[in-house]
C-alpha cells in the first residue's frame, strides 16, 4: 500500500478480511486494523457502500479493544461519515461528523483542524437540509474565524458558506475582500484559490472567480469546471454551463478506478 501498489494491497487486505470469521483468537485490535484498511481502500476506489460496511464493522469491533484512543475514535467516525456523505446520506453523516468534532478538545487540535471539522459538520447539515442547524454552525464559524489572517482557516469558511446557493449569515463581497487579502504572491494553495473563486461567484464577481481559478495550478479538477459552469449560468449562458458540466463529468468518470 505504502509503495503505491494499490491493487496488490487490496488483494491482500481482502484475503485478511476473508480470514476474519475463522480467526477466533485474533486480538481485537488486529481485527480493527483489517477492517480499517479494507475501508480505506474501498473509499479510494469509490466503493462507498462497501467502505460504509467496513467502517461500521470496525466501530463494532473497536468496542472490544481495551484502550482505544480518542484519535482512533475520531478517525473512525470521520471515515464512516465521509462514506455516508459520498452516498448522499447527509442526514446520517451529520451526527458522525459532530462526534468527530467533539473529540477535538481531548486531542488538543489546532485551530485549523477544528475549523476543518466544523466545515464538515456545516456541509453535511446543508446537504441534509437542516437549514437552522447549518446557519447556527456557520454563524459560530464566522464569529470564531471571520477575522483570521490564515488562508487555510478562511478556506474552511469559504467552503462552509460558499456551497449554499443562497448566502445567508455572511456577506460574500466583504468576505471575498478579506479572503483575497490573506493570499500572498507566493501562496500555492489550489483549494484556497478554488474557495476564493466560489466566494467571488457568490459575491457576483464572475471575473474575480475566473482570476482565482487561473491560479489553482496546472492540475485541473472537476470542481474548476463546476464553478465555471455556475458562472455561466449566472450570466445566463446555459450552453456554456452544459459544456463545463460535461467536462466535469468526463473528468470524474476518467478518475474512477477500475477493478484490478
Describe the structure.
It is a single chain. With 260 residues, the chain is an all-alpha fold. The chain contains 14 helices and no strands. Helix 7 runs parallel beside helix 9 and helix 10 packs antiparallel against helix 11 (190-202). The radius of gyration is 20 Å and the shape is globular. The two termini are 14 Å apart.
Could you say which structural class the secondary elements and strand pairing correspond to?
mainly alpha
Mean of the pLDDT scores?
93
Helix content percent band: over 70%
Distance between the termini: 14 Å
How many beta-strand elements?
0
Name the helix and strand elements from N-terminus to C-terminus, one letter apiece: HHHHHHHHHHHHHH
List the helices and strands and how they pair.
Blueprint: H1 6-19, H2 28-44, H3 48-62, H4 70-86, H5 90-102, H6 104-107, H7 111-127, H8 131-145, H9 151-162, H10 172-182, H11 190-202, H12 206-213, H13 222-234, H14 238-255
Helix pairs in contact: 1-2, 2-3, 3-4, 4-5, 5-7, 7-8, 7-9, 8-9, 9-10, 9-11, 10-11, 11-12, 11-13, 12-13, 13-14
Keywords:
single chain, mainly alpha, 72% helix, globular
Brief synopsis:
The chain is an all-alpha fold and 260 residues long. Helices cover 72% and strands 0% of the residues.
